[in-house]
Amino acid sequence: MVNAKTNLKGRAVYVVDGGxxxxxxxxxxxGPFRASDLAxxxxxxxxxxxxxxxxxxxxxxxGCVSSGPDExxxxxxxxxxxxxGEQVPAWTVQRNCASAMQSIDCAATNIAIGRSDLVLAGGxxxxxxxPVLLNEQMVTWLAGWNKARTAMERMRQLGKxxxxxxxxxxxxxxxLTDPVVGLSMGQTAEELAWKFNxxxxxxxxxxxxxxxRLAAAQKAGHLSExxxxxxxxxxxxxxxxxxxxxxxxxxxxQLKPFFDRTVGKVTAGNSSQITDGAALVLLASSTAVRKxxxxxxxxIVDCQWAGLNPAYMGLGPxxxxxxxxxxxxxxxADIDYWEMNEAFAxxxxxxxKAWTESDYCRDQLHQEQPFDPISMDRLNVDGGAISIGHPVxxxxxxxxxHLLKVLEREGARRGIASLCIGGGQGGAMLVERQEER
Length: 437
Description:
The chain contains 15 helices and 16 strands. By secondary structure, it is an alpha+beta fold.
């Protein structure tokens, strides 16, 4: 095994294997799986393929944005259900859309510094199960009701009840709105569309491409990381449900703007889909690889996090990718394939434009020269979140895992996976395909 140096400032960190569930569309009612169910099903398939027992894992780290009330520290719950044993610690991380990439970064750091040798990392999210909450007025009223002791006190409290108190808070919608700038994630995409003069036709064209690429990938069998899901009623889920293989620019053009209904361009069709799903990877040190004779899919080289104006959060990938390339002395030509999470078509297209603009690169990315264009033939080659879906606590692991699969399939060496992050952040991870010798 190649004992390559790592920019994690320690031991090399390898990705042994990984898997994910199909991504299931949130259709209104809660889906058939809770977040922990999804992670357990993905984890069982992954661990069953390994020449190790589950209790050989040193720790479990999962990303999740909103676990259910019965899933506090969801990583620990999943670890126990996977049979890792009571002595294997587990913890949960949350960095909005990049939670699952954060889990890999944390796992890789612990391996690099010698704290762990084998770590199960990833993310899970059941967006269809995100809670519906009581508003503050109703909570206050209920507090008064609980204090009432006599029938007369309860009658008085009932008299204070008002219809607005029954107005629910949709946690998913509230969570997808930035409280600092007062914009939903879709509205930040509208900001980028106007800032970079991205047309509705460009956005719909990109969205159609995402669906067509996913359809081609499914047909060619390029999504081998997907593990089947069996619902409690016996229903088999074996493929991503968001695919619309027959979609066209014309069909997408018939959809009305969703986030700015008067002059907007962002629609449900050129945005990522709300979905349920989980993705996990097994990371190992070279010591563990040799000890257990583990296969190697690739190596985690480095990770970068960045912050920017929350109103333009969609440009986050650029702010993370630029210093990552600079630190390693790499150019765009040195990266064979790219995965950039498709939060919105407008966001992807804005990133591609800003990446090559002299003013933006100088003023915002602190680069003397703009970057060379990222080839569309090397970016999200099998589709992305617009067609696959974007379970927010999961996507970071999905794109890292699939990027490694693409490198393996194409015999390529190096790739970067990146995401924009609600709240005005960006994350990027540099990976390399590693051969045994």
